[in-house]
Specification:
The complex is a heterodimer of chains A (107) and B (176). With 107 residues, chain A is of the alpha/beta class. Chain A has helices at 26-36, 56-69, 82-90, and strands at 3-8, 11-16, 20-21, 43-47, 53-54, 74-78, 98-100. Classes of the chains: A alpha/beta (107), B alpha+beta (176). Chain B: It comes from Cereibacter johrii.
Chain lengths: 107, 176
């Protein structure tokens, strides 16, 4: 799972460099994210602009990362493609996460 | 092997292995097959999500991580996509009261279940001669979840987001 992390102010921006967060990738995604969020930024932004597909396992992994951050740190999302947006909407997770149109909107 | 057909009708058959990487490759192939390509993009997205959830169900529940054959049949007629997925794994548990069919070895309230319920119509299941056969149609206009939901924003599911995902409500009422 190719993830690229960069600190920008109080924000840790993690760009997912892979097209799919699916059942075959979910565990690895979660494990890599666990390593990356060791960086003590109060906000973590997941840049999903390269992700064209996310299934229920991928969504479960994103939720697990949010829980990993605990109550004092926030996981935000940016640049959701149509399929990813649909999955968040139909499961109502779009109400749980702060979702930005573009990464620049979160800065 | 795609069969021919105009934009309004097309069929496609695919046989795959149940392991996750084979499922991923199959989904990529299905996303680009004639019946899906003929759909408007919203419906095509819905079909991809549904097929992913149904095939993941074969992997995780029917075969419980083992390798096994899965067959997918897609038929587009008059803009309506019908799908059938067959496997030779464990049968699904008996249907629960009030549910149309027992797809739902998927945990109730889990994300997979929510997606299938929102996107599929006429979901049917049978187990015959050692074969699980699940058929469904892709809902043409995905009206699911249009309304504000009265569930508290804090209703975040526990481990991996299952079990107690907001149990609402198809946009109507909230039981919790």
């Amino acid at each position: 799972m190719d993830l690229e992390a960069e600190v920008r102010g109080d924000l840790l921006v993690v760009r997912v460099q892979q097209e799919r967060i699916d059942a075959a990738a979910a565990i690895e995604f979660k494990d890599r994210m666990r390593e990356l969020v060791d960086t003590p930024a109060p906000r973590v932004l997941l840049d999903l602009s390269r992700v064209t597909f996310l299934d229920s396992s991928g969504l479960g992994a994103v939720v697990a990362v949010m829980k990993l951050l605990g109550p004092d740190r926030r996981l935000e999302l940016a640049a959701l493609g149509p399929v990813v947006r649909k999955v968040f909407r139909l499961t109502r997770m779009d109400r749980v996460f702060t979702i930005h149109e573009r990464v620049s909107d979160a800065l | 092997m795609p069969s021919d057909g105009g934009p309004a009708s097309a069929s496609y058959r695919l046989r795959l292995d149940s392991r996750p990487l084979a499922v991923r490759a199959a989904l990529a192939e299905l996303a680009d097959c004639p019946p899906l390509r003929a759909l408007p993009s919203e419906d095509r997205d819905a079909a991809q999500i549904l097929l992913a959830e149904i095939l993941n169900n074969c992997t995780e529940h029917a075969y419980a991580g083992r390798s096994g054959p899965v067959e997918v049949a897609l038929d587009l007629r008059r803009g309506q996509l019908s799908c059938e997925v067959a496997d030779r794994g464990r049968p699904m548990p008996a249907a629960r009261p009030g549910l149309p069919c027992p797809v739902l070895s998927l945990r109730e309230g889990g994300f997979g279940w929510m997606l299938i319920r929102a996107l599929a119509e006429e979901l049917r299941y049978c187990h015959e001669n050692g074969v699980n056969r699940l058929s469904f149609r892709v809902a043409r206009t995905c009206l699911a979840a249009p309304d504000p939901c009265p569930c508290p924003r804090s209703a975040i599911p526990p481990e991996s987001g299952c079990e107690s995902a907001p149990r609402c409500c198809e946009g109507r009422t909230c039981s919790d």
